[in-house]
Specification:
The protein is of the alpha/beta class. It is built from 34 helices and 31 strands. The strands form six sheets. Strands 21, 22, 23, 24, 25, 26, 27, 30 and 31 form a nine-stranded mixed β-sheet that branches. Strands 13-12-14-18-16-19-17 form a seven-stranded mixed β-sheet. Strands 2-1-3-4-5-6 form a six-stranded parallel β-sheet, sandwiched between helices. The chain is globular.
Length: 948
């Protein structure tokens, strides 16, 4: 650009002739440049000061508001630099003086949409093709998205239903539909029934059914995703109307991991939430900040899409406005297909549950994100915690941030792989729709995934691996038998026509129990007829994972959907069928690569004799040597029985993010799990992490956590020890704080924190408040006496909330009664009786999940009370031994019996009540003559069940 001087009066409106322009001198150019630059600097300074003021709004204490202060500080620094530059006499360099404005959430979302658009298109699974079914749908987004593209779905409305109805095979009504009940009851359903059309209701809400009850009575079939809702429907509907429980559907034509490695965007997004009803608990401030603050605290890019605005519904707190799209921006987000693409493009996604206290009702994005191969961070929900342990429950911002910061790529891919397998094994929309259609009387063939495993040699190890697979319907053969079966009719040879999937395996490898399930799931969400696992670790294989490829590098890592008969003569013949794909494009290459998980070279890990278990003497030497050589300080005893998924994703994941993980000796004590996946998980963790040691009791189990806890204490060779159940979590480096406080107090036997609890709601068990009246406080320690148990009414604390001196705990010689439940509370009562002093830590140090539906303490049967019978017989004997029996009987037993045992007794099924009552009578007999005063206890003994 050429600078020229122009007098203000020299304009075409004032003169008809243009004066001759004189070229500016260098001095003039420099002067004008200085003036313009000075003006620009002043304007930029004022803009940054205004931005600093805008970032200085919220005063609440949170990660978000600390980021406000951080941004305000950066803007003020920039403003001061600009002011200094403006006052300088020389022209300063312009570079770096004016900061680029931070990207808005809308800009980040737009970028993520652009990145996600590069993903390959979703595919119908080769084993789950589109159904030839015409379905009239009157439903909300949950069902429309769950069945997207899987059949010919036609949305019916009050305006166009007549033109659609005669061309349908099935009418499906969803409980979340916004069509009026009058239209459904008086018009649509009668018209469909008159045409002989099956009419089904699918209830995706909880037991508060509202108008769905009246609609259900007019339908031919009812399905519910919540067992509680199904129970209500069965009790209210005519007997001839069947009610079935079905899983929530997910469609791979929207949500799929195909092409998602590596992640296409660094964004971590909350894509709104489902709110059909107000959710009072979301107004509580402690539930949302841990989720979002943790992401922001980890320095990750976040974008929050607000939920649809409705009266009394939750909205994203104002503190998060800088990361939240406006309502206007959210309205332009795009279609459901585009949103699903972003779900696929992220490595991590967020979900907020509007319901906490349900085992079946939660935000559908939790399933959609997992199907997309995306890790989920979510607020608490009972069912999510019970059945999807790979979903991280956001208990604190610190733990969320540490999870994102410390998780290795291999751990991330494991979380994602577990989610993919779970969803496409249990929630495939085609399977759900097929089940509905068949129950409604339509002739739809059921899908089968029968597997034939073939190997050169069927060794004992290979047979054991095949027998341990979680996928059912598996048979095995050899290549020789397979080739012979094409020419011979012998009955003992495999009939290949009975199988859909051929899986070659090699005795040079060992296969984890989920290996076949991973292949079977992949055939359900993508169209290639051959799948393969990758050989290597996450770092070396990630670029190839969940991508199409031309060939198979290792036949022993592949699986084949209905291979041609002529390809079964030999391994070479099978591989030759892929030659035609050598020149294919990315989308048509014949092989789909999954991931590197689920297999290992033979001999890579130690072998476990599950029938015999681990030799105790050998384990003592190994555990001692590990503790000494690594300089470990804190033993964490984890008792395990058939809950390997919770172990990996709950307890162990929480210890992994601990700041003292490398100083912990994590003792995985298997109580004889019958589940091969649990054993495999234990051994994998012990193999990968040098500070993890595993001990296996002989297969079968003892009935409770007592035996593995006793074993773990005996195998502890560190100075300090604690306990953590596999479905619980350390909270915010709680064990580090307990350890440090105990180290500073040589007079104390242990340090005790408090416990965060999730059941139907959130709570904190503040033991120090409970114990305040009965324990002396002196020199920063608490000093109980022999009478403190009596003063405190024998109220226990959790042994998972403490770190104890190992030598002291071992010297006590306490043994938790094998086979008992509730034994950890009894164990604390015993050790509290012997306590000299303990260090209080006034905050929750671990999270207890009290509503894991599959947990032994939540399955109420006569056997549940037998486990308590073991406990009470042992406790009664100990109380007599230490002279506390009479006071316990007078002060504690009756109240505990009626408030605990009789409340549990109410949940026993009717056909088990007599047997359970008999066990309760035995339990009472352990305490001899009980003087009953509580009306609830008296009522039990007057009832038919309570009488001897």
């Amino acid at each position: 650009m050429r600078w020229i001087d122009l007098h203000p009066s020299d304009t075409t409106s004032q003169t008809s002739t243009v004066a001759e322009r004189v070229s500016a001198t260098d001095a003039d150019v420099l002067s004008a440049a200085r003036a313009a630059h000075h003006t620009a600097l002043e304007a930029a300074e004022q803009a940054h000061r205004a931005a600093a003021g805008a970032w200085s709004g919220p005063t609440q204490k949170s990660v978000a508001t600390s980021l406000y202060a951080h941004h305000a500080s950066l803007h003020l620094e920039r403003a001061e630099a600009l002011a200094e530059a403006a006052s300088a006499s020389a022209v300063p360099p312009a570079d770096g003086l004016v900061a680029d404005p931070p990207e808005t959430p809308a800009a980040q979302w737009a970028q993520a949409l652009g990145d996600a658009a590069q993903l390959p298109s979703p595919e119908a699974g080769v084993s789950r093709p589109r159904l030839g079914l015409r379905v009239g749908l009157v439903a909300g987004p949950r069902l429309r998205l769950g069945f997207f593209g899987l059949a010919e779905l036609r949305d019916l409305t009050a305006e166009d239903w007549q033109t659609q109805l005669e061309h349908l095979d099935l009418l499906m009504i969803g409980s979340e539909t916004e069509e009026s009940p009058e239209f459904l009851l008086e018009t649509l359903i009668p018209a469909a029934r008159a045409r002989g059309l099956p009419v089904v209701l699918v209830v995706t809400s909880g037991p508060a059914l509202g108008s769905s009850l009246s609609i259900a009575e007019r339908c031919t079939q009812i399905f519910a995703t919540d067992p509680e809702a199904a129970a209500v429907l069965r009790s209210r509907c005519p007997e001839h109307v069947e009610v079935e429980v079905i899983p929530h559907p997910v469609s791979p034509l929207l949500h799929t991991p195909v092409g998602t490695r590596p992640a296409r965007t660094p964004l971590i997004a909350l894509l709104g939430m489902e709110q059909r009803h107000p959710a009072p608990h979301l107004e509580e401030p402690q539930f949302i900040p841990p989720l979002v603050d943790g992401v922001l605290g980890a320095g990750r890019t976040a974008a929050l899409l607000p939920p649809e605005p409705r009266p009394h519904h939750w909205s994203i707190p104002a503190d998060y406005a800088p990361w939240t799209l406006t309502r206007a921006e959210a309205a332009l987000v795009g279609s459901a297909r585009e949103t699903a693409q972003v779900q696929r493009a992220m490595d991590v996604g967020l979900a907020v549950n509007a319901v906490m206290d349900s085992q079946a009702v939660f935000d559908p994005q939790i399933l959609q994100l997992q199907a997309s191969g995306t890790m989920v961070l979510a607020t608490y929900n009972q069912g999510v915690n019970s059945y999807y342990p790979q979903v991280h429950i956001a208990n604190s911002a610190e733990d969320v941030a540490k999870t994102l910061e410390t998780m290795t790529l291999d751990e991330l891919r494991r979380v994602q792989a577990d989610g993919i397998r779970t969803i496409f094994t249990a929630h495939h929309g085609t399977d759900v729709l097929t089940r509905i259609a068949r129950a409604a009387g339509l002739e739809i063939p059921a899908h089968q995934d029968r597997v034939l495993v073939v190997a050169d040699e069927l060794t004992e190890d290979l047979r054991a691996d095949i027998a341990s697979q979680t996928h059912p319907a598996v048979e095995i053969t050899t290549w020789a038998e397979l080739a012979a079966s094409r020419t011979d009719d012998a009955e003992d040879l495999p009939d290949i026509s009975r199988f859909e999937i051929l899986v070659p395996m090699s005795c040079a490898r060992r296969y984890s129990p989920e290996y076949l399930a991973d292949h079977v799931a992949a055939f359900r969400y993508q169209a290639a007829a051959v799948t393969t696992k990758l050989d290597g670790d996450a770092d070396s294989t990630d670029d190839a994972a969940h991508q199409r490829r031309a060939g198979v590098a290792d036949l022993g890592l592949s699986a084949w959907w209905r291979p041609a008969p002529e390809a079964l003569d030999s391994p070479d013949a099978l591989l030759e069928t892929l030659e035609a794909g050598a020149g294919a494009t990315d989308s048509t290459m014949p092989v789909y690569a999954l991931d590197h998980l689920g297999h290992r070279p033979a001999g890579a890990r130690r072998e476990i004799d599950r029938e015999q278990g681990t030799d105790m003497a050998q384990a003592r030497e190994e555990f001692r040597r590990t503790a000494e050589e690594l300089g470990l300080e804190l033993a964490v005893v984890v008792p395990i029985y058939n809950n390997g998924d919770h172990l990996r994703h709950k307890a162990f994941a929480s210890l992994r993010r601990s700041g003292i993980f490398e100083k912990m000796h994590i003792l995985l004590i298997n109580d004889g799990s019958t589940d091969a996946s649990t054993v495999d998980t234990i051994e994998e963790l012990a193999h990968v992490w040098p500070n993890v040691s595993a001990f296996h009791h002989a297969r079968g189990g003892s009935g409770s956590a007592s035996r593995p806890r006793n074993t773990g204490l005996a195998l502890s060779f560190t100075e300090f020890v604690t306990y953590l159940d596999p479905d619980d979590e350390e909270l915010e480096d709680g064990y580090w704080e307990l350890l440090e406080r105990l180290r500073e107090a040589p007079e104390a036997d242990y340090a005790l924190g408090t416990m965060a609890v999730w059941t139907r709601k959130y709570g904190v068990h503040d033991y120090h408040q409970w114990f305040q009246a009965g324990v002396e406080h002196r020199d920063g320690l608490h000093w109980p006496t022999a009478d403190s148990l009596v003063t405190l009414n024998f109220r226990p604390a959790s042994i998972e909330a403490m770190v104890a001196r190992t030598a002291w705990l071992q010297r006590l010689g306490l043994v938790q009664p094998v086979g008992a439940v509730g034994q950890d509370s009894y164990f604390f009562q015993q050790l509290f009786f012997h306590t000299r002093a303990y260090v209080p830590v006034y905050r929750p140090v671990y999270t207890y999940y009290g509503a894991v539906e599959t947990s032994i303490v939540n399955v109420i049967s006569p056997n549940y009370f037998r486990k308590y019978l073991i406990l009470e017989q042992d406790r009664a004997a100990w109380l007599r031994e230490v002279g506390l029996f009479e006071v316990y009987l007078e002060q504690r037993f009756e109240s505990f019996f009626v408030s605990w045992y009789l409340q549990k007794y109410k949940r026993v099924l009717p056909h088990d009540r007599d047997e359970a009552a008999g066990v309760l009578r035995e339990l009472i007999a352990a305490y001899g003559d009980v003087r009953w005063r509580d009306p609830r206890g008296l009522e039990f003994f007057r009832s038919p069940e309570g009488r001897p």
